[in-house]
Amino acid sequence: MVNPNAAMIVIGDEILSGRTQDANTFHLAQELTRVGIDLKEVRVVSDDHGEISGAVNVLRGKFTHVFTSGGIGPTHDDITADSIAAAFGVSIDVRDDARAMLATNYENGEADLTEARLRMARIPKGAKLINNPISKAPGFSLENVHVMAGVPTIFVVMLENLLPTLSGGQPMLSETIRMDSPESEIAGPLAKIATDFPELSIGSYPFSMYGKYGTNIVIRGTSQQLIASASHAVALAFEVLTK
Amino acid sequence: MVNPNAAMIVIGDEILSGRTQDANTFHLAQELTRVGIDLKEVRVVSDDHGEISGAVNVLRGKFTHVFTSGGIGPTHDDITADSIAAAFGVSIDVRDDARAMLATNYENGEADLTEARLRMARIPKGAKLINNPISKAPGFSLENVHVMAGVPTIFVVMLENLLPTLSGGQPMLSETIRMDSPESEIAGPLAKIATDFPELSIGSYPFSMYGKYGTNIVIRGTSQQLIASASHAVALAFEVLTK
């Protein structure tokens, strides 16, 4: 069985200008690994209609799921929902259920829904809402595109509500082996092991600590048994090497 | 004058699997803003030849500069240099100057350059080297594509060596105004100000602190005078609003 796969689109000038460090990709990557959806690509695009809808249309055709983060607030630079509607060629308008959810966030309910706030209840036709227990303005899924907030605390709860509704695959498992040798000393034997286990992804990540170089070897795959075999092969190879 | 622009390509399965949080994009974004190069797009792609060269070819045609991070070490999963050479259709081989630099990293110099280590001296034909005072394996620039290490400390020094060789533009300036009002209350007047200052980028970023909602308004542009005018307009608008 091949796992479903996914892309992430982070929307926001504040990430590209270096004002803010994106935290949502890291969280999403960990959660998708946990449920067996393989994250294959991430794009960060600016608050620009054409850039957002262009990226959505390329990626929704290429991957099982597309997750987006950012640009669904009440201000003029929040253009994600409109860009998604345009990408799909569907209409967008204030929707009653989204409006009702949103109203629960304000003291006087519906009466407090100003024009700006109502922007957050504009949902492309055919979308399913994603619940937002924090600030009540919902995200939405349109076919395989899942549109969530950029504020990390809200992104986290929206994803928590969304993920159980998606079909996952086999969770990606991994084992890390820490070597006190620089990458260049283990590269040869490691390449052979990677060839011997084509079903696994075997990566090596150098680090330095207290002035000494080391390498973390990370073996990833969906079969615990294969990972154990590869891990054993690594142990054997480097006992030989350090003799 | 229009500033030069740029894209970043982060190469690495370890980012997509959530094992590691990318730090290089945030650093690059801040440095480019400082020197007046506008970062317009970021892509994270997997350790896959076709994905890397595909992204390079799309983005090098679209932007003044493309910066890459990751995949230039000595192991089998370090395929960035080969993928870049393939993207440009040029040959790649061990180059004498890169080999000499690399040799300075080892006790016995050239004698310690194993096959795996020599992989780090493979440079696409026509590239200029980027100095790496830390682990000596150089990065390189091929036309407008600048290939650097993924290890953050090395990425930082490579970028420090590279940036002064690139033509910058007018540094992007910004002013942040903190409002103790939620975004939805300032959206209307703010949209009008954004329309009045088309040369500036005016963003609003909600936050919550001690259970109260607030908004940072960020005004960005290259003219300090225009930013000051917009900032004054914001002050005027919200004195009116809070009356």
Q: How do the helices and strands line up, and which of them pair or pack?
A:
The structure is a homodimer of 243-residue chains.
Chain A: E1 5-11, H1 13-16, H2 24-35, E2 38-45, H3 49-62, E3 65-69, H4 80-88, E4 92-94, H5 96-103, H6 115-118, E5 122-124, E6 128-130, E7 139-142, E8 145-148, H7 152-162, E9 173-179, H8 183-196, E10 201-209, E11 212-221, H9 224-242
Parallel strand pairs in A: 1-2, 1-3, 3-8
Antiparallel strand pairs in A: 4-5, 6-7, 7-8, 9-11, 10-11
Helix pairs in contact in A: 3-4, 8-9
Would you mind describing this structure in some detail?
The structure is a homodimer of 243-residue chains. The first copy, chain A, is an alpha/beta fold. Chain A has 2 domains: 5-165, Molybdenum Cofactor Biosythetic Enzyme, Chain A (3-Layer(aba) Sandwich), CATH 3.40.980.10; 173-242, Ribosomal protein S10 (Alpha-Beta Plaits), CATH 3.30.70. Chain A has 9 helices and 11 strands. Chain A has helices at 13-16, 24-35, 49-62, 80-88, 96-103, 115-118, 152-162, 183-196, 224-242, and strands at residues 5-11, 38-45, 65-69, 92-94, 122-124, 128-130, 139-142, 145-148, 173-179, 201-209, 212-221. In chain A, strands 2-1-3-8-7-6 form a 6-stranded mixed beta sheet, sandwiched between helices. Chain A has a 3-stranded antiparallel beta sheet with strand order 9-11-10. The longest helix of chain A has 19 residues, at 224-242. Chain A is elongated and about 70 Å long. In chain A, 46% of the residues are buried. Chains A and B meet through α1, α2, β2, α6 and α8 of A and α1, α2, β2, α6 and α8 of B.
